[in-house]
Write a sequence for this structure.
């Protein structure tokens, strides 16, 4: 017959792993092993600890556990803006996918300046994140060096940096720009204007390069060019 905890410490505030250990009659390290994925604990110990935890209403402290394991199970996500409806949808899917793997997302907004972006990433690093995902922002080489030295992987979404040393998930924007130009020419259009996005963005640069290259190959050129900063309001 399974042993039941016989003594219960007084409840004063939030229960700790030490409270669970006393009630279950095990060591505090045993409590930690039971609530740590991949750690070893016998079925008997696990049952005693979980029963004591349920009685006390105990929940593991993820931040405290990260100090012991070196893993926070948190991913820092840096986003420049959410005006474009493309991003909320993508970020929702990314967050759900990470949660299915046991990770939680910390979202930080960063204005489109190198200094501000680096400051935000510096703040993210203080949370001991396991990885960083940047959406439509670029990082300085110094900050990339620091992340690499600390073993923190970086994934860049919808941007490509020249001579980058980290992974990037994006589309072939040059090809996309060319296809838009070809589609318009096939419809019989001969006069073209172009509203650019952020001037420093790789997506904007590549799309415009593909678009203008396709026009040039057909003896055409832009009639006008404006900067819309990927914003409907700025494009008007």
């Amino acid at each position: 017959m399974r042993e039941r905890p016989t003594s219960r410490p007084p409840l004063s505030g939030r229960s700790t792993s030490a409270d669970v250990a006393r009630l279950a009659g095990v060591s505090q390290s045993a409590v930690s092993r039971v609530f740590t994925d991949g750690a070893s604990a016998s079925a008997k110990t696990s049952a005693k600890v979980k029963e004591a935890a349920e009685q006390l209403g105990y929940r593991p402290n993820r931040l405290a556990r990260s100090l012991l394991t070196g893993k926070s199970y948190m991913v820092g996500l840096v986003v420049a803006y959410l005006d474009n409806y493309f991003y909320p949808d993508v970020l929702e899917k990314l967050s759900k996918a990470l949660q299915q793997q046991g990770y939680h997302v910390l979202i930080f907004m960063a204005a489109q300046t190198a200094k501000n972006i680096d400051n935000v990433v510096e703040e993210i690093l203080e949370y001991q994140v396991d990885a960083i995902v940047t959406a439509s922002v670029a990082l300085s080489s110094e900050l990339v060096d620091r992340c690499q030295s600390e073993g923190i992987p970086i994934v860049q979404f919808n941007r490509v940096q020249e001579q980058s040393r980290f992974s990037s998930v994006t589309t072939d924007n040059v090809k996309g720009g060319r296809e838009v130009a070809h589609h318009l020419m096939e419809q019989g259009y001969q006069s073209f204007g172009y509203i650019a996005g952020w001037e420093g963005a790789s997506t904007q640069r590549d799309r415009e390069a593909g678009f203008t290259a396709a026009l040039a190959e057909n003896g055409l050129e832009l009639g006008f060019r404006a900067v819309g900063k990927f914003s409907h309001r700025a494009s008007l």
Residues 1-12 have pLDDT under 50 and may be disordered. The beta strands are 74-79, 104-109, 131-135, 154-157, 167-169, 192-196, 222-227. Residues 202-217 form the longest helix (16 residues).
